[in-house]
From TrEMBL:
It comes from Desmospora activa DSM 45169. It catalyses: Hydrolysis of (1->2)-alpha-D-(4-O-methyl)glucuronosyl links in the main chain of hardwood xylans. The keyword Nucleotide-binding does not apply. Keywords: Carbohydrate metabolism, Glycosidase, Hydrolase, Polysaccharide degradation, Xylan degradation. The keyword Transmembrane helix does not apply. This is Xylan alpha-1,2-glucuronidase. The active site is at residues 277, 356, 384. It is an enzyme of class 3 (hydrolase). GO terms for biological process: xylan catabolic process. Residues 445-667 form the Glycosyl hydrolase family 67 C-terminal domain. Residues 118-444 form the Glycosyl hydrolase family 67 catalytic domain. One of its GO terms (cellular component) is extracellular region. Transmembrane segments: none annotated.
Length: 671
């Protein structure tokens, strides 16, 4: 059996096919596109592995079997409406053609070709015509210059260590390939919680290092952004204010932006977290978020830069005794009234749910409320609240559910996917961004199966209508081609149910937040219940859940109709979100016919059994698995089972003690 280790070669882009091809690859790159240097490198590093011989020429000699070029360089009539990143692949006269309007399209077309070659598709049967649904397909790193990663579960930072840049070119190129191969086209490299060291990334001290990285990423179609400290005019500029309406502040930013673009012409712009979780912002000066964002946007505008302004703004010093304040309302209350007040290069970054990336929460009503402001949806690839890359939790099913959600913002069938892509709102939707899950661990993502979340994000950002099963199968077939098909099938089946399994042994019916404070791994039912963060489940002897109806916080009114009324009504509110919207008795009967308390007991027992089933399935393939891969996943599963058992016992015991109601199946619940 082939020996495979869980190193950086064990991912979808770099794993070799289990069926080597027998033909030669004679590739012609026609034209003078700078991206051809990248395509040549990709061909030599990856495509060449699949062919008995590979040759690359800079023109069409008539002997090549694969031709790459723009419609103009090839003298062919273009395919309309594919844009700067779309591509067409077709066979003609016994040769394969990869053609696009612009060079980014050629890059994505070559990745598609590489995927099909890896999957064993015959050369002349490869065919495609694609363009991305979303303008921005972005990831946010939460990396710090000391090498740490906030909410990072895959080792230390790829970019930083010891207060400086790592400058590992081989690693950076491998990473750029990894991202661009799934269509990601933009990234930040530093934490949105910008500390003192990272504040200086926009100064002459670090701009040469940033420029080196930006140039490298640009070769792979990736635009680099930086997260900035809103108070930089004070912390690094020597001013005594960061008031956005002060001329001295605006002038300081304009000079700083001029220096940045002088060093980095391809620079994308800034990402800002302001007035959130103790971060500075315009509220300190009695200004609005539009005031703060527009000042920065004006500085970026002459260079084509964009400002991503996060909408994660809420009262994090809430008095838990105050039942009138609902954190879920905050993003809408802050930003919906400002619709139309932002500059056209400001992009509001809206978390997918109104709270904070819980395993289950409602879709943010701010998505759909903005009619005249550019925006993106923000997801979380890194598994902060969903197992931290210890527990397997495949997140594309969660994201697909969010993207398919009908907001009714512009009438029936106004889905989140159509809004964030701009199709349903005149172009104000600008795409997707996500907090990424990569680090310096040998397999990039801590848990090898967690690679599928990054892969799946890229696939859904490119095409939100892609079949989830096809994505999971494709990832497994590309990542583990050396494994027997039945083993890959088991991996896919585990992945596809893992989100629901994780939900079943953690937080019931949309309640959330029952985690250990600070690091957020493992159960602590009341960990946040009396905290200032606004993260409450209000469990008492009679019932549990948050009343967000019109009689409660009136959060439901932020949704378009009939969505708000559906959530308002106990009879029509989906069971999986019941406790997100309602405080109900333990004896309330769900549509399943179970009471709430019995559902809590059953789901937590069932979740543990499902994790045991994961382990049994993995054990059944032990003889078919490379030892390193077997051990890596088995260790993770053992840790997941211990976590699931702890969740089951703590949650069930807590609610038995609270309700006094027995489990009708008589299973062990600790008194």
């Amino acid at each position: 059996m082939e020996t495979v280790t869980t190193d950086r070669e064990a991912c979808w882009l770099t794993t070799e096919s289990s069926k080597p091809r027998t033909e030669k690859l004679l590739l012609s790159l026609v034209g003078d596109a700078p991206m051809f240097a990248t395509i040549r490198r990709l061909c030599q590093n990856h495509a060449a592995k699949f062919f008995v011989e590979t040759a690359i020429t800079d023109r069409d000699t008539g002997k090549s079997n694969v031709i790459i070029g723009t419609w103009t360089s090839l003298g062919k009539e273009s395919t309309p409406n594919l844009g700067s990143e779309g591509y067409t692949i077709f066979s003609e006269e016994g040769r394969l053609w990869i053609v696009a309007e612009e060079e980014r399209g050629l890059l994505y077309g070559f990745y598609h070709f590489l995927k099909e070659i890896q999957l064993g598709t015959p050369l002349l049967e490869i065919s495609a015509q694609e363009k991305p649904a979303n303008v921005f397909r972005m990831i946010n790193h939460w990396d710090n210059m000391d090498g740490s990663v906030e909410r990072g579960y895959a080792g230390r930072s790829l970019f930083f260590e010891g207060g400086s840049f790592t400058k590992d070119e081989d690693c950076m190129r491998s990473y750029a390939e990894l991202l661009s191969s799934v269509g990601i086209n933009a990234l930040t490299i530093n934490n949105v919680n910008v500390h003192e060291q990272e504040s200086a990334l926009i100064t002459n001290r670090w701009l040469p290092e940033v420029a080196w990285l930006a140039k490298l990423f640009q070769e792979y179609g990736l635009t680099l952004f930086l997260s900035i400290n809103y108070a930089s005019p004070i912390t690094i500029g020597g001013l005594d204010t960061a008031d956005p309406l002060e001329t001295s502040v605006a002038d300081w930013w304009e000079r700083q932006v001029e220096r940045i673009y002088g060093s980095i012409p391809s620079f994308g712009g800034f990402v800002v977290k302001a007035d959130s979780e103790h971060r500075p912002g315009p509220f300190s000066y009695g200004r609005t978020h539009a005031d703060g964002a527009n000042m920065l946007a004006k500085a970026l505008k002459p260079y084509g830069g964009h400002l991503f302004w996060r909408c994660f703004v809420y009262d994090c010093l809430q008095d838990w005794r105050d039942r009138s304040t609902d954190r879920a309302r905050a993003a809408y209350d802050h930003f919906a009234p400002l619709d139309g007040a932002f500059a056209d290069n400001v992009i509001l970054q809206i978390k997918s749910g109104p709270m904070d990336f819980q395993v289950r929460e409602a879709v943010s009503p701010l998505i759909g409320a903005l009619k005249q402001t550019k925006h993106v949806i923000e997801l979380q690839i890194t598994q902060e609240y969903t197992g931290q890359q210890i527990d397997v939790c495949y997140l594309p099913p969660q994201w697909k559910e969010i993207l398919d959600f009908d907001t009714h913002a512009n009438g029936k069938d106004t889905t989140v996917a159509d809004l964030v892509s701009g199709r349903a709102n005149g172009g104000f939707g600008q795409g997707m961004t996500a907090v990424v899950n990569t680090g310096r661990d040998e397999n990039w993502t801590g848990h090898s199966f967690a690679q599928a979340n990054l892969y799946g994000y890229g696939q859904l950002a490119w095409n939100p209508k892609r079949c989830l099963h096809a994505i999971a199968e494709e990832w497994a077939d590309r990542t583990y081609p050396y494994l027997p098909k039945n083993v890959r099938k088991t991996i896919v089946s585990i992945q596809e149910c893992s989100w629901i399994v994780y939900e079943s042994y953690t937080s019931p019916l949309g309640i959330g937040w029952m985690v250990n404070p600070g690091h957020h791994y493992g159960p602590n039912v009341n960990g946040y219940e009396f905290s200032p963060w606004g993260t409450y489940h209000f469990s008492d002897r009679n019932g549990l859940g948050v009343d967000r109806t019109r009689k409660g916080s009136n959060y439901v009114s932020q949704y378009a109709e009939p969505v708000g009324s559906r959530y308002e009504n106990l009879q029509t509110c989906p069971d999986e979100l019941l406790l997100f919207f309602h405080h109900v008795p333990y004896t309330h009967v769900l549509t399943s016919g179970k009471t709430v308390i019995q559902h809590i007991y059953d789901s937590h027992f069932d979740g543990v059994e499902q994790v045991k089933a994961f382990i049994a399935a993995w054990e059944s393939h032990k003889q078919e698995l490379p030892e390193a891969l077997y051990q890596h996943v088995r260790v993770k599963f053992d840790a997941q089972l211990a976590n699931a058992v702890e969740w089951r016992d703590q949650v069930n015991t807590y609610y038995y003690r609270m309700s006094g109601i027995e489990d009708k199946h008589g299973r062990t619940i600790y008194r």
